[in-house]
Design goal:
Length: 472
């Protein structure tokens, strides 16, 4: 008995005299907020090997110490809807607190090459859906001219539909995170096509992320709910703000009712009342005959490259060249505020490719605009509610298909160290429609899988902590 006790006593003595553990990084003295658990407390965060190692209410040592007193420490933001997937986009998003940028709406043409291009180079975690519109182009005409191809206007033949199903299944097999649809850009889609592609998605436990058809009369939502119900697929309605416009409240009610019926449907919004898209797309095919397009209305379109407002002549010219525009206000800022605050919505940016240094301001400032304008200035929702919409809600939406997402969107020991440190009193977006290319203010530090990517408000050149978010 004595011999058994001695080593234990010796061990205890050794532990007491050994130097305290030194973590790779310590984030010191911040208000740690974790919407997944409700934790809201001043703590020190120890990070080791890319993961959160400890949340401590006592002093801990770190090889690198980042000060966070007076600031909030939260999970890095997870953006389900980011088209821009370039180094310039990732850099802008890091300044806005985003640590995971997913292109799930329109998606990409080829999953393996898209991931290969980013491997080991991205400062944020990255992932994409397989694109229904691009795959549809390929099934019809053997190539992908993008969202403006004429083929997108007509229903598919049975032969083409089979080709499309095969292509989508093959790309899901390559690990696509979801299936991305832009029904507004592919008006030829039928209910039968939706049902069949949703069925493929359901077979891979992939969520269908959908930009609905225009119309604003619930038929566009009902065709998607019908496909979800018939196939058992999960459905995510993208940018409910721009897809429902003035009817947003009605759409939210319909989504809530569908959830009560057992359909797995979720939604997201971005905090602006003007959209951005490609001028050459099918959305504007009727611009010369549709009475909506008065001279005054056309003058509300902004050409992103220069910030100039368009007129009848330049609108026609730009349609021929092709490029990105800001669309006129389609609904009130009260509608935006209602959507941002509603418990059902997640926050997603719909960020556009930064082209010649410019893109819709949502590309730069979506998350800081929520935190600065809607939480602090408007008090439309609490800080914890806002963080929930940016972290655990989107993480859980993807985790069914990509289990590694269960380690993201949380501040808990064992979770990935995707962390943001910001000042809730100063965080704000800076970009405007005329001068959009301005980084958000108020973020001190951003970690991506334990890699310091923003330090004291400055982007760390060559940071490449991002990993592939991929289902395989
Ligand atoms: Zn869209």
């Amino acid at each position: 008995m004595r011999t058994a006790l001695l080593p234990l006593a010796l061990l205890a003595l050794l532990a007491a005299s050994a130097p305290a553990q030194t973590y790779d990084i310590v984030i010191r003295g911040g208000r740690v907020m974790d919407p997944a658990t409700g934790l809201d407390k001043v703590l020190n965060v120890g990070v080791d090997g890319g993961e959160i190692a400890v949340l401590a209410d006592y002093d801990i040592e770190g090889r690198t110490v980042l000060e966070a007193s007076g600031r909030v420490v939260a999970p890095g933001f997870i953006d389900l809807h980011e088209h821009g997937q370039s180094p310039a986009n990732y850099r802008a998003q890091i300044h806005d607190g985003v640590t995971t940028a997913l292109e799930l709406e329109i998606g990409v043409e080829d999953i393996p090459s898209w991931y290969a291009e980013r491997e080991g180079k991205a400062p944020v975690n990255y992932g994409a859906s397989i694109s229904h519109p691009y795959s549809r182009n390929i099934a019809e005409i053997g190539k992908n001219p993008g969202l403006e191809g004429e083929a997108l206007m007509r229903p598919l033949t049975e032969d083409e539909l089979v080709k499309l199903e095969r292509r989508i299944a093959m790309q899901l097999g390559e690990g696509a995170v979801a299936v991305g649809f832009g029904i507004a850009y592919t008006p030829g889609v039928t209910q039968q096509e939706l049902n069949r592609i949703f069925t493929k998605a359901a077979g891979y436990n992939a969520v269908c992320h959908v930009h609905m058809r225009g119309g604003y009369n619930l038929e566009n939502l009902n065709e998607l709910l019908a496909a979800a119900e018939a196939s058992g697929a999960s459905l995510h309605i993208v940018h409910i703000n721009s897809s429902a416009k003035k009817e947003a409240a009605k759409y939210l009610e319909a989504i809530e009712a569908a959830r009560k019926r057992g359909i797995d449907v979720t939604t997201e919004c971005y905090p602006y009342n003007q959209g951005s898209t490609l001028i050459q797309s099918h959305l504007f095919d009727d611009w010369e005959t549709n009475p909506l397009y008065t001279d005054k209305y056309i003058n509300e379109f902004i050409w992103v490259e220069t910030g100039e407002r368009l007129n009848r002549k330049t609108f026609a010219e730009k349609r021929k060249i092709g490029g990105t525009i800001i669309t006129p206000p389609g609904y009130s800022m009260e509608t935006v505020e209602m959507l941002v605050a509603h418990p059902l919505t997640m926050i997603a940016s719909d960020g556009m490719w930064i082209d010649q240094g410019r893109a819709h301001p949502r590309t730069y400032g979506t998350y800081s605009r929520i935190l600065g304008h809607y939480v602090r200035e408007r008090k439309a929702l609490t800080l914890m509610e806002a963080l929930k919409k940016m972290t655990i809600m989107p993480a859980e939406r993807v985790a069914g298909r990509v289990p590694s997402m269960r380690k993201k969107g949380r501040v808990e020991p064992g979770m990935d160290a995707d962390l943001v440190v910001f000042d809730p009193n100063t965080v704000i977006d800076k970009g405007t429609y005329q001068d959009p290319a301005q980084y958000s203010a108020g973020f001190s530090h951003v970690l991506v899988n334990g890699v310091i990517t923003l330090r004291d408000g400055k982007f760390v050149e060559d940071a490449a902590g991002g990993i592939a978010i991929r289902a395989r």
